[in-house]
Amino acid sequence: MGSLILAVRFLTVVPVPGRELLGVSALGRAAWWFPVVGLLLGIGLDGTLAALQALFPPLLASALLVTAWKAVTGGIHLDGLADVLDGLAGRDPAQRLAIMRDSRVGVFGAAGLVLFLLLVVAAVADLPDPVRGRLLILAPMVGRAAPLLVGGWLPPGRGSARPSSSVSPDGRALSGRSGASRSASRWWARGARQSRPWPGPR
């Protein structure tokens, strides 16, 4: 249960009571729960949308749902997306990594985030009900499992990759990171700092 509590606190801002798993390999063991947390989030999103559609027009209901979605998850993946988009402006791998390490958001990142959120709202509003419901449940689950796989498969983006907060489900740190996997690593690492304002009892 400690692993599940850690996974929920790591991936959302939901103040779950209880004692989370501690230790160097704690996040690695909790990673097995990431898709489960995504599935629960997706089920919640589907139910929330149904309630919102009963009260508001489709477009407004979709906008409110996406707002709630990003608020519950702390918007942690949006930061990684902005980093990757800003990195596209780099002339070579070294410059792209330097841009991605910069905490400031550039034009590519800002424009990309706005367009991305508009696309999500439009998709939620316009997709047929059966398809929309399945995608709302599936997307958070896949999204929380994908960074673990990406971080383990891709080679390092830097010559001397240092251990990061990304871990594999067996508890090992994923040190191999290229552009995409580096973004995934930062996605998780920043989530640990941004999405857990209430740490709960230890």
Spatial shape: globular
Helical residues, percent: 55-70%
Tally of separate helices: 9
Q: What is the mean predicted local confidence, pLDDT?
A: 75
User: Which stretches are low in confidence, meaning pLDDT under 50 for 5 or more residues running?
Assistant: 160-166, 170-202
As for the number of domains, it is: 1
Structural class: mainly alpha
Distance between the termini: 13 Å
The amount of beta strand, in percent, is under 5%
Order of helices and strands: HHHHHHHHH
The biggest beta sheet is recorded as: none
> Based on DSSP secondary structure assignment, what is the total number of beta strands?
0
Our Rg estimate from Cα atoms comes to 17 Å
Report on this model:
- The chain has helices at residues 2-11, 26-30, 34-53, 58-72, 76-87, 93-101, 107-126, 129-153, 179-194.
- The chain contains nine helices and no strands.
- The chain is mainly α and 202 residues long.
- The two termini are 13 Å apart.
- Residues 160-166 and 170-202 have low confidence and may be disordered.
- The protein has one domain (2-194).
Features:
202 residues, mainly alpha
Outline the fold blueprint:
Elements: H1 2-11, H2 26-30, H3 34-53, H4 58-72, H5 76-87, H6 93-101, H7 107-126, H8 129-153, H9 179-194
Helix pairs in contact: 3-4, 3-8, 4-7, 5-6, 5-7, 5-9, 8-9
